[in-house]
Design a protein that fits this description.
Elements: H1 3-21, H2 27-37, E1 47-56, E2 59-67, H3 69-72, H4 79-101, E3 106-109, H5 119-141, H6 143-160
Helix pairs in contact: 1-6, 2-6, 4-5
């Protein structure tokens, strides 16, 4: 899918979730929101987010930041925690790929000093990238997510008819 289509799809999902969440007196809306909120189970309790700290030709730094449970699981947010994590995961994949394509870059872990990765660290980053890609594929291919969204979109279109 094109980047624009992906952004539109994600915005539409958040919009639908928001509309359904605003209907607490509607049993079917309440049920679908509760089911969407169960997607939070795919959010880990800890996660290392990778992001580009700087990206000039001579100073490319990949920052790794440990995100604790309190950041990943905001109480009462359910699906919104899942959505935020999925975006964090996609951003980490993008920035890991960008760093690993370069011949020279540095890595900064949890606000420590930036250092050029040795071969072991490069292997660790490649393994992390593969792990993250697998996690994203599991999220995208989740039959639970697909079934819940099919029900949500169907109900939403009944509301707006």
């Amino acid at each position: 899918a094109s980047p624009a289509a992906t952004v539109y799809s994600e915005a539409a999902k958040q919009g639908i979730y928001g509309v359904l969440r605003a209907l607490p007196d509607e049993p079917q809306a309440r049920d679908i929101v509760a089911r969407l909120d169960t997607l939070e189970r795919f959010v880990p309790n800890e996660f290392t987010e990778y992001s580009l700290e700087s990206g000039t030709a001579g100073n490319f730094v990949l920052a790794g930041t440990q995100l604790p449970r309190e950041v990943l699981h905001n109480p009462g947010k359910g699906y919104l925690n899942y959505h935020a994590f999925r975006n964090t995961l996609k951003g980490s994949i993008h920035d890991l790929e960008a760093a690993l394509r370069r011949e020279n870059f540095k890595v900064r872990e949890d606000s420590g000093a930036a250092a050029t990765p040795d071969s072991q660290k490069l292997g660790d980053l490649r393994a992390r990238l593969d792990l993250y890609k697998g996690m994203l594929e599991d999220l995208d291919e989740s039959s639970a997510q697909q079934k819940i969204w099919a029900a949500a979109v169907h109900y939403y279109y009944q509301l707006v008819k």
